[in-house]
């Protein structure tokens, strides 16, 4: 699983999401990722709920392909600030 695959899963699972996924430890680290996700679906949700939405979008991949993911979640209004 690569960064593009993860971004596609997140974007497919969260309405109007835009996901940017990187490997913060470098290209040789196969299972640690970082994602910044922007979606209006996060409006009014706690950070915990926002992160749960991302985990739900990733589904079983969180236990099979992804060892760890560092999440930053924002609404579009938070990005504009």
UniProtKB/TrEMBL annotation:
<comment type="similarity">
    <text>Belongs to the BolA/IbaG family.</text>
</comment>
<dbReference type="InterPro" id="IPR036065">
    <property type="entry name" value="BolA-like_sf"/>
</dbReference>
<dbReference type="InterPro" id="IPR002634">
    <property type="entry name" value="BolA"/>
</dbReference>
<protein>
    <submittedName>
        <fullName>BolA family protein</fullName>
    </submittedName>
</protein>
<dbReference type="Pfam" id="PF01722">
    <property type="entry name" value="BolA"/>
</dbReference>
<dbReference type="InterPro" id="IPR050961">
    <property type="entry name" value="BolA/IbaG_stress_morph_reg"/>
</dbReference>
């Amino acid at each position: 699983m690569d960064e593009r695959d993860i971004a596609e899963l997140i974007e497919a699972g969260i309405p109007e999401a835009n996901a940017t996924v990187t490997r913060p430890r470098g290209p040789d680290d196969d299972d640690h990722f970082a994602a910044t996700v922007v979606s209006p679906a996060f409006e009014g949700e706690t950070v915990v709920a926002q992160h749960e939405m991302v985990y739900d979008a990733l589904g079983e991949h969180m236990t099979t392909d992804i060892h760890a993911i560092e999440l930053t979640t924002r609404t579009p209004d938070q990005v504009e600030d």
